[in-house]
Amino acid sequence: MSTTTNAPATTDPRPRVLTGDTPTGRLHLGHYVGSIQNRLAMQETHRCFFLIANMHAFTTRPEQPADIRQDTLEIVKDWIACGIDPERSCVVLQTEVPAIAELTWFFAMLLPFNRVMRNPTLKTEIDSKGLGDQYSFGFPMYAVGQCADILAFRPESIPVGEDQVAHIEMCREVARKFNQVYCGVDPHAEDHEHEERGGVFPVPSAMVGKTGRLIGTDGKQKMSKSLGNAIFLSDTPKQVKKKINAMYPGQSRDPDEPGDPDINPVFEYAEVFIEDESFVEDLKARYRKGDGLGDGHVKAHVIEAVNALLEPIRERRASLEGPDGDERVIEIIKDGTARANELAEDTLARAKRAMGLSFFPRSLS
Fold this sequence. Notes:
Tyrosyl-Transfer RNA Synthetase, Rossmann fold
């Protein structure tokens, strides 16, 4: 274990990363390969802050506070089950970090409204959730708030899925604009120079996982809970088998007929989840030849690989179920958030000094 594991958040010398999830229910395989794998790998080498964006959940579900609370606990259970170690990383609850809300307000003044509404991820959310023009006034603030989520912890990079890169670009714009307006950083400065030239914020970069976009079990859309095409990390072996067996292979063929693995979504899963790359290449070659390899055979290998990945996750998650598990999760959140607030308050103090708003010190208790 790293000797800097329990160092104060403001003095830990390791590079910082920030990422997280909005609590909308259980996590699925798309989350795992798109971001969580990166998070696990960085726990030894980086100072990691993993944010549960429960405030953002209210932008589309303000009438469901009880569901959001439970979903918040479920997200953390999935994280811990996957291997997120609260001793090495800070698990942070967004609504208990007041600096985020204050920074959101300040950043909103630096972004034209039209720029926020042009964010492609925001437009996709409006379309996919069927919000039309009925979304709340607070909904577009989600995009600005995500900038504050990130910059409150002044990270160098953000592990995200492919669909979140547009959000990160807006965050980078905010960091540059703040540093230029309030810290006097030259507009022509390179991104990596901003802090050394006196900027409060680094200009962070997006870190996309090896699989930036995992197709869902419908074989068409990105894996998503709302589309009903997801394999959840907590699914049973039978549920995994049923979902993968139901996948359409993209073509109709007999086992002895040539097939095209490039249009078969099951082969995408084979490439992602079967560790033996030469075995996957052999499956593809046999499939192309029509060498007696049916779609069911390929699916069986994928089912075996996915269940091998999920089995230890299921076991760890089972230990967190029930009232005792909920209490344990709350303690993990409480501890991580306390450590995170140390850094977020330091960031806010720096920002307010740069803006001429530092009239007297304050502290959280």
